[in-house]
Specification:
Blueprint: H1 7-43, H2 48-74, E1 78-81, E2 86-93, E3 96-103, E4 111-114, E5 123-124
C-alpha cells in the first residue's frame, strides 16, 4: 500500500516498525547460523538426510526473513539498508517527493532527504518546518 507519511504519522508508526526491523536483524542472524550449519554438514561426514534437513531449515529461515521485509514495506516504508540500519518513509516537501529518514538507534524521525541524495544528503527537520507534509 502506498501512502505519504507526515512527520507525525511516521513517528506514530515508528515503534511498531522498529520492532519489525529488530526482528529482521535477528532473522538475518538465524540465516547466517543456518548457513553455517549447512556448510558444516556439507564438509563433514554428515549423511544425506541431515543435509536435506539443514537445507530445509535454511529455506525456512530465508522465507521468514523475506516475509519480515514484506511486512515492513507493506506499511509503506522502504528498507534502504539492513546493515546500515536505514529506513525511509515517503513524504512530500511542498510539491516534491522526499524521504523521511530513520537510522537504527534513533527514537524518532528527525531527518529528511531528496529522492536521489540518500543518507549523505540528510537534512534536519526543524520544528517550524511546515513545508513537510
Amino acid at each position: 500500500m502506498f501512502t505519504y507519511f507526515t512527520i507525525k504519522s511516521a513517528n506514530e508508526a515508528l515503534p511498531s516498525i522498529i520492532e519489525k526491523f529488530n526482528s529482521l536483524k535477528k532473522q538475518k542472524n538465524e540465516i547466517i547460523k543456518a548457513e553455517q550449519e549447512l556448510q558444516i554438514t556439507m564438509s563433514s561426514t554428515g549423511n544425506f538426510e541431515e543435509y536435506i534437513t539443514k537445507k530445509q531449515k535454511l529455506n525456512s529461515e530465508m522465507t521468514k526473513f523475506y516475509q519480515l521485509i514484506e511486512d515492513i514495506e507493506a506499511i509503506g516504508v522502504s528498507l534502504k539498508g539492513l546493515d546500515q540500519g536505514l529506513l525511509d518513509f515517503p513524504s512530500k516537501r511542498f510539491d516534491e517527493d522526499v524521504w523521511l529518514c530513520w537510522k537504527d538507534g534513533e527514537t524518532e524521525i528527525k531527518f529528511w532527504h531528496d529522492m536521489d541524495s540518500g543518507f549523505n544528503g540528510r537534512k534536519p527537520i526543524s520544528i517550524s518546518d511546515e513545508s513537510l507534509v
